[in-house]
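Need the bound structure for IPE, inputs here:
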Amino acid sequence: MPLFRKSAPQEPEVDFTALPRHIAIIMDGNGRWAKRRGLPRTAGHAAGAETFRTIATYCKEIGLDYLTVYAFSTENWKRPAEEVSAIMKLLKKYLLEAIDQMERDRVKMAFFGDLTPLTPELRELCEQTKEISRHYEGCQVNICLNYGGRDEITRAVRFLAEQCAREGRDPASITEQDISDRLYSAGVPDPDLIIRPSGEIRTSNFLLWQSAYSEYYFTDVLWPDFSKEELHKAIASYQKRSRRFGGV
Ligand code: IPE
Ligand code: IPE
Ligand code: MG
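Answer from helper R.:
Posting the output first, comments after.
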């Protein structure tokens, strides 16, 4: 008999009765995932879209209140036109399928970002997805599309400045809440946990205002390989932390 038995890797302990209310994910690493397999980057985006579907469904199943995902940033337009157009095509495919299966999945969907540069067809699909799912209960999934944290804050500030000029409002009366209320995320609680796969340790302009006291979880796993087990690891890590919000 061997003296030491190699134990199976331990499944992280998740307390499903004390989940974070809001998890946000930077869905990164699609391109590298494809490259490692000798595939075009587009294949990575397609695989990433499948992972998103799995994780969103699972989040609803475990009773998470909010899931926010970073799908396309204000800076991602810098990529080659073919890659951008492939991502938009995948988005269309995803939205059509989501609309088709909406009554079955019953996931409430919202979009954060400036959708005006998208094609009218894509904008219409986003609108339909949002409208059909508006009354669904349970998990709300926010998809960040042409989203940038700086852009979001700039728009809020511009609105408030215009309001002061137009209505003679005293700028000194502007509160943090006024700014929060003008963000795409108005009414959604700040993310408790932000996950970034792919090994990059940066925010890349994601939820700059809302992340003031978010807990971060970084992993080297590439987004298309992200799984329920990886999500468990992130939640288990979150549950071990002490959040002080500046207090003691
Ligand atoms: C994330 O994966 C998807 C988008 C930004 C649209 P990437 O395409 O950034 O993948 P990597 O970082 O190049 O591996
Ligand atoms: C962030 O990933 C944006 C999304 C995942 C949608 P990027 O791949 O664009 O970020 P950088 O360029 O590595 O910072
Ligand atoms: Mg990337």
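Comments: The helical segments are 30-36, 41-61, 81-100, 102-105, 120-133, 149-167, 176-181, 228-239. Residues 41-61 form the longest helix (21 residues).
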